Amino acid sequence: MIFVLYALIGTFAGFSAGLFGIGGGLIIVPALLPLFAYKAVDPAVSVHLAIGTSLATIVVTALSSIRAHHKKGNVDWAVFKQFGLGLALGAVVGGVTADLTPGPWLKLAFAGFTWAMAARLLLAAAPVATRALPRAPYVVGAGSAIGWISSLFGIGGGAMSVPYLIHHNVDAKRAVGTSAAGGLPIALMGAGTYLVAGWGTPGLPEWSWGYIYLPAFASIVLLSIPFAQLGANVASALSSRMIKRIFAGFLLVVGAVLMVTG
After folding, report:
1. How is the chain split among helix, strand and coil, in percent rounded to 5?
2. In contact, 196 and 57? CB cutoff 8 Å
């Protein structure tokens, strides 16, 4: 039965990623926590396990996304070389930071992050191109900050990468494609760090590779990719304003639930 629930998470995460244009980590992590509680996973490691598992699923979805965007010529590989390096470095630091952070604190931080994301969706105007990309060290630095936050909370980073790139005069479509490509170094380095940091940690359930729970990973990936396409199709029928409001409302509820159960 629990494998069906994992698959349903993949369905909802994929559909939401396609519908809202934001990585499935914001869905996967909160959804896994009550299932891990049901399985009596030690609360000291359950949040780390949910985040590490989320990052592992993003490796697969990012590969699919990169392929699609590259075919359309929407990945700026010159920008990616600098930005992706920063994302990878930051993802490692984010994984180490998470390992050093107690589970309950990490859950509350995740809840605060969901509220911040909701506020940004509701209040922030669309990013405007106002300046050129800075020199390489600054691009790497920005990528490192985004990679750190993304790995810390198990997300792909698109919600931060896209506005940054557009603000620095990268064409909107190429900003989305380059951000999608950036999800791969975040996920690879982040998941790898969670795997190594969690290896041998007491309290992890059977079939865990460090902080990656393989049964949940496999079940989520199985359905997340096809349902992402369905979500993208539905998104084309809704206004961007409506999509933002729906997702912001969802994030507010998720943050509230995490705060109460933290």
Report:
1. 80, 0, 20
2. no
Gap between the Cα atoms of 10 and 87, Å rounded: 25
The pLDDT value recorded for residue 16 is 73
Question: Which among 190, 39, 41 has a CA at the least distance from the CA of 103?
Answer: 41
**Tokens 């996967």 — which residue?**
28
Task: Write down the pTM of the prediction.
Answer: 0.87
pLDDT digits (tens, 9 = 90+) for 66-116: 887 788 788 889 999 999 999 999 999 999 999 999 988 998 898 888 888
DSSP 95-128: HHHHHTS-HHHHHHHHHHHHHHHHHHHHHPPPP-
Check if the beta carbon of residue 210 is closer than 8 Å to that of residue 195. yes
Instruction: Provide the residue ranges of all domains of the chain, joining segments of one domain with +.
Output: 2-261
